[in-house]
Structures are given as C-alpha cells and as structure tokens.
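Allow me, if you will, to draw on your knowledge of protein folds for a short while. The matter concerns a single protein, recorded as an amino acid sequence and a row of backbone structure tokens. Kindly check, if you would, that the fold set down in the tokens agrees with what the sequence suggests. You will find the record immediately after this paragraph.
***
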Amino acid sequence: MKFILRLLLVAATVLAISYFVPGIYVENFWAAVIFSLVLGLANSIIRPLISLFTLPIKFLTLGLFSFVINGLLFWLAAQFVPGVEVDSLLTAFIAALIVWAVSVLANKFLNNKKKK
C-alpha cells in the first residue's frame, strides 16, 4: 500500500513540476507514473553504484554531490520514458530537488502515521 501511495505521490509531483518548472514536459499522468517507476528502479539499481564510485567527490563536497547524482538519475530516467522530456541537466537538478523534498515530507508523514 505504501509503495503505491509513494509511486502516485512522485507521479503527481512530477506532473505538477512540469507545470511550474520550464524545461520539463510530461504528456499525461500515465507517463508520470511510468516515469516514477523508472526513477525508482534507477534509484535502487544504479544509484548505489554511482554513489560508490563518486565516494571521494561526495566526501570532498560533504555529501552535496548526492544532489547532483539525483539530478543525473532524474535526467536518465526521462531518457527512457516516452512522454517525459527534460531539456537540461539544470532543470533535472531542480526537479530532483523538488521530488526529494516532497518524498522526505511524505516519508515523515507515513512513518509518523505508523508509530501512532
């Protein structure tokens, strides 16, 4: 249940981002759902490998390079989903920051609901 809720929340966030951030285009809600699935797969499979190889850079930047990795994975996921376009890496970085913030808030809400 939580997986579906998070998937739909990320899809709705990506769809909302396409209205407010210039350079991100999403055709419809189903494209956003497929994009959120691909983004989740990229985060679970590719992100650990990239994080391992960029560990020295992350150490030097005190972990801030993780945001760049988020932007790269957002851009990479958009390359595989028809109906989702990202114009540049900067727009992918901004969109990834917004998705990250919404996901943190959603995780906090879902985890607090579980504790009660």
